[in-house]
Write a structure and sequence with these properties.
The complex is a heterodimer of chains A (225) and B (108). With 225 residues, chain A is an all-alpha fold. In chain A, 37% of the residues are buried. Chain B has 108 residues and is mainly α. Chain B has two domains: 70 residues; 31 residues. Helix content of chain B is 73%, strand content 0%. The chains are: A mainly alpha (225), B mainly alpha (108). Chains A and B meet through helix 2, helix 4 and helix 8 of A and helix 1, helix 2, helix 3 and helix 4 of B.
Amino acid sequence: MSNTGESALPGGLKGVVTDWATDKQAFQVPWGKAMMWIFLLSDTFIFSCFLTSYMNVRMSTTVPWPNPSEVFALTLFGHHIPLILIAIMTFVLISSSGTMAMAVNFGYRKDRKKTAALMLATAFFGATFVGMQAFEWTKLIVEEGVRPWGNPMGAAQFGSSFFMITGFHGLHVSAGVIYLLVVAKRVLSGFYDRKGTYETVEIAGLYWHFVDLVWVFIFAFFYLW
Amino acid sequence: MAEQAEEGQQHPIAIYLWIWLLLFVFSAFSYMVDYIGFQGGTRWTLILLFMFLKAGFIVAIFMHMQWERLALKFAILLPPLCLLVLIGLMAIEGDYTFLTRLQAFVHS
């Protein structure tokens, strides 16, 4: 911090504009990565507000909360297995996070084909997850009669919390699948080879891992608690 | 911070595969918590333990936070601590609403 040149800076409102507009760098990463992190930080607050409101309604209701272990059970091959669909969804999403991490790694090795293939695999797992979620929602709405304003199993707040939290997460996964497909197409076309950097793949990866991260919390607090 | 190379985050593939495997194992464990049917304090402790382990590995390794500079770590990881205040306040509020509901609807 040297004082030279500071006296030359304008004061007042013009000074505010100058200070904010001056080319200063706080984070030693590509700006897109810093911006993605800040977006994810804001998203953290949104999901936390949802989960906190869920905690609040679950603590304050005098009606017993439906048992998620039973609500999300499936009968497969004659066996009644609790929470099995959610477990499979969790493993699908973790697999997608793994393939994404590998895609980022191969991106920095400038391996165009492997990067694109792994990103497409990630998008495929993501689409599978959304498909299973659509199945889960249909089963809950049609067979179990769960509505945002009530359900036959217990506390009315179960439906609204469930649809809001998993719906918002599913929206993030769907948007992520589109995002991944767009970036994968650019990888395949050699766009990032010409640009000289694959950092966009890492930024897309940050978003995707975040979606997985949010699911870890939803899995723990909504399905297991 | 010596790994802060110009080309970005390059790390051995083995570390990703190990973390991937760990995430699978922790997910299986947290599913087993439900399957075996632990209840009460044991259940909540185990759920939170596996949740934080998974979240930590995803952020630290998959999202490369471990290799970022401290300025970025502080900027992203410290603000969410404010949420503890929100969670605390809402827990107190939820308790209060529960008690008033008991008094208003259940006793009378």
